[in-house]
Each structure stands twice: as structure tokens, then as C-alpha cells.
Amino acid sequence: MTKQRLVMGNWKMHGSLASNQQLLEQLIAGLGSAHSHSDVVVCAPHPYLAQLQQILTNTAIQWGAQNLSEHTQGAFTGEVSPLMLKDFGCQWVLVGHSERRALYGETDADVLAKTVAALDAGLTPVVCVGETESEQAAGQTQAVILQQLQSILKLETALLSRIVVAYEPVWAIGTGKSATPEQAQAVHAYIRGLLARHHVAAVQVLYGGSVNAGNAADLFAMPDIDGALVGGASLKAADFLSIAAA
Ligand code: 13P
Questions:
Q1: What is the pTM of this model?
Q2: Using a 6 Å CB cutoff, which residues line ligand 1?
Q3: Better-scored residue on pLDDT, 145 or 37
Q4: Can you tell me which atom of ligand 1 is nearest the CA of 128?
Q5: How many CB atoms lie within 10 A of CB 79?
Q6: Angle at the Cα of 226 (from 131 to 30), degrees rounded to 5?
Q7: Sign of CA dihedral 173, 153, 147, 218
Q8: Active-site residue flag, 71
Q9: How far is the CA of 132 from the centre of ligand 1 (A)?
Q10: Residue with the nearest Cα to atom 5 of ligand 1?
Q11: Is 199 a catalytic residue?
Q12: CA atoms within 13 A on the CB side of 166
């Protein structure tokens, strides 16, 4: 089955009103033909979602957030609910990015709760998984991914079929050291197998970790790599456009 390729930018904690506007205008102007084989999404910090809604409505680019609360409203100071993301036109939200897990203590239980909250609100959660360098060295990659995904895999099929999975090996994030296409393909095939056992073969599985204009095409040539979650290179219009067109 051929699925539409999905190229997502994760801006992380970067941007300003002025630089975002310039970047978005360059992306809108540049997308034309690239859009024909990639769906393009950008995930911005919460304060900029209103700006994305204003600039990206009725364009080929969709947008989303990088985190959400598992609650819909209430006394949760500093949190942002899935309904608020919907209010600003988000269709997507990253869940369980390795930086959230490592720096903010998000557990697999938190990731499950946030995934369910996103689905309940009609958002597409992009569930991020991946092993650290030491886990990889110890041959634990599959075990780590199984652990990170197993509670999510127990969701009912109708819900599970609405997620996207992003494989982001921690050792490849922001290091310039991408997984090779073969390394990534092996893990994607494993993830695909887990999903297939739960009857959701059509879920998209993205690769993330030092994706750039030079390596995207080789990664996308792999049968189980359905697109990319791009950090640093998503902040440069020319690089992000080349990845979308790769
Ligand atoms: P880089 O592309 O900067 O390695 O970041 C990957 C990432 O964490 C995307 O979510």
C-alpha cells in the first residue's frame, strides 16, 4: 500500500513572530510541487499557534503543537489542553518526544494519557519512541520500543489506527549522526510488525534524528519509512523544502 509521505517540522523552543513569519512565507511560496508527494506539518511552541493559524489557514501546510495536557480543563497551572490546541486550528500534536521524557520526566503512562487525550479531542498524536545510545549499544533497541509502545498498542483498533509513530533514536537527535537508512528501516519494520499484530498496518511511521536535505531521499527510499520528523533542518526553509521534495 502506498501512503502519502508525511514531513513534519518540530521547531522545538525556537522562533519569534518575525522569524516565523519569514519562514512560513518561504515555505508557502516554495511548496508547490513538493506538496504533491508530501503532506507538510509544522509543530510550533504554543504561543505561536495563533500566528500559524493566521498565516497557514487555506494553505497546503498544516500545523500542530509539541506537547499537550492530558486534561481538558481545570486547575493545571501552566498546562495547555487539547481543546485549546483545537481552538487554534491544530490537527497534530507531538507526544512523548525524547526531550519531554528525558528533561521533564514524562513516563510511558503520561504518554498514553496524552495520546488518549489528543485522540479524544480529534487531534492526531505523533507518538515518539526511541532508544538511547547506551540502550542501542546493549542491543536493547527493540525492547525499549516495545516498552514505550505496549500500552498504546492496547488501545482499540479504531483509536490506534489514528496515531502516527515517530522513531527517533535519542543518539541521532541534534547530533548530525542520523541512523543509516538500513538501521532505521530495521526498527521501522519492527514497529510495523507490532502495529500489524494489532491490525493497524496503515499507521504512518516517521523517522527523526538529524534528517537533512542530503539524507532524506535515502531514508525515504526504505519501504517502512513513511516520512520524517525534522528538528534543526525545519528551521531553514530551503532545507525543509528539499526534505519535503526528496
Ligand atoms: P534534529 O532533526 O535536530 O536531529 O531533531 C530531531 C527531533 O528531535 C525532531 O523531533
A1: 0.97
A2: 10, 97, 168, 173-174, 208-211, 229-233
A3: 145
A4: 10
A5: 14
A6: 115
A7: negative
A8: no
A9: 14
A10: 231
A11: no
A12: 30
Tens digits of per-residue pLDDT, 97-126? 999 999 999 999 999 999 999 999 999 999
- The pairing of strands 5-10 and 227-230 is parallel
Grid cell locating 129: 519512541
* Whether 165 contacts 149, CB under 8 Å: yes
Q: Locate 47 and state its grid cell.
A: 504561543
Say how many CA atoms lie within 13 Å of 50 toward its Cβ. 3
C-alpha pair distances (Å), 106 with each of 134, 136, 231: 20, 21, 20
Q: What is the mean pLDDT of residues 65-72?
A: 98
Contact 187, 167 (CB under 8 A): yes
Query: All 3 cell numbers of residue 86?
Result: 483545537
Q: Determine the distance from the C-alpha atom of residue 131 to the mean position of all C-alpha atoms in its chain, rounded to a whole number.
A: 16
State the catalytic residue, choosing from 70, 97, 106, 188: 97
CATH superfamily, domain at 5-245:
Aldolase class I (3.20.20.70)
Q: Which of 174, 207, 246, 240 is CA-nearest to residue 26?
A: 240
- Which DSSP string corresponds to 116-130? HHHHHTT-EEEEEE-
